[in-house]
Amino acid sequence: MSEADAPAPEHLVRWLVKLLDVKPGVAPDSYVGRRKRGGVGRVFGGQVIAQALAAAERTVLQDREAHSLHAYFLRGGSEDHEIEFAVARDLDGGSFSNRRVVASQQGRPILNLTASFHRREEGVSHQDEMPDVHPPEDLPSERELRLKYASEFAKDRQAAMLAPRPIELRPAEKRHWMGGEPGLPLANTWFRAVAPLPNDPRIHRAVLAYASDMTLLGTCTMPHGLSWARGNVMGVSLDHAVWFHDDVRADQWLLYATDSTWAGRGRGMNRGRIFTRDGRLVASTAQEGLIRVLDKPRS
């Protein structure tokens, strides 16, 4: 797709908001997630997480905000089908609510998610400091970088790597697919929606949950010279957790600081912290993934 033929940012974000919303299903507390427009192959994990969160939120009082979610990926989802979500109301207490969600396609579970909701209250506070990195205005967009380094990509990954996205990423450091050398398992990436989002906190949490699956798993491959873009590794998310700490707008620049504490036995462990421009820590993430080195890299 040429730059002239690429959808306008407003259209990309409008499609993303619609994608991450869910439709009522036939049974009580059941919902249906739409297919990604033009999607091919495996469903992006962040999409399933965000849609499952949206389904859970539909069953919770408005004064209770999601403060954490924990998900297990059971099977790869297919872009050929919509996703069905069944919600179980496990708890509605004085301050907290808890929901379990099973995401399925064609009668087979692909993801289990538990989400907890908390009625806002005051308390003590402290937080980590934000890493000192270049501001996003001083960095090229990931799309610009992908176009520049397209020759580094495996041929079967080029279309996906170059497709326009509703989330803009600006990496603060050189990545393997840019010809970078193996290094420490640390990465900092600015991100935001490419156009303004509606003024609905649930939409911003959904978009943050969606984007939290970007760049995270790749952190554990950085010391080993591995990259999905180059086709020398196969990686699959096994589980994913998000803790929502504070109010956030996902259409303003956020810094995703990720690190990997361990890799071995075919798996890699990754952590993330998400900061606003003014240094507020608004979310934390964790993810373990399957990491298999390919003996014969894809061309």
In short:
The protein has five helices and twelve strands.
Q: What does it look like?
A:
16% of the residues lie in helices and 36% in strands. The chain is of the alpha+beta class and 299 residues long. Helix 2 runs antiparallel to helix 5. It is built from 5 helices and 12 strands. A 12-stranded antiparallel beta sheet has the order 1-2-4-5-6-3-9-12-11-10-8-7. The longest helix has 13 residues, at 45-57.
Helix content: 10-25%
Q: What structural class do you assign from the helix and strand content?
A: alpha+beta
CATH superfamily grouping: Acyl-CoA thioesterase, double hotdog domain
Q: What is the total tally of β strands?
A: 12
Q: Report mean pLDDT, rounded to a whole number.
A: 92
> What are the low-pLDDT stretches, counting only 5+ consecutive residues below 50?
none
Provide the domain count. 1
Order of the strands making up the biggest sheet:
1-2-4-5-6-3-9-12-11-10-8-7
Question: What's the CATH architecture?
Answer: Beta Barrel
Radius of gyration: 19 Å
The description of the largest β-sheet is:
12 strands, antiparallel
What is the global morphology? globular
- Estimated share of beta-strand residues: 35-45%
Order of helices and strands: HEEHEEEEHHEEHEEEE
Count the helices. How many?
Answer: 5
Give the distance, in angstroms, between the N- and C-terminal Cα atoms: 21 Å
CATH structural fold name: Porin
Can you identify the CATH class?
Mainly Beta
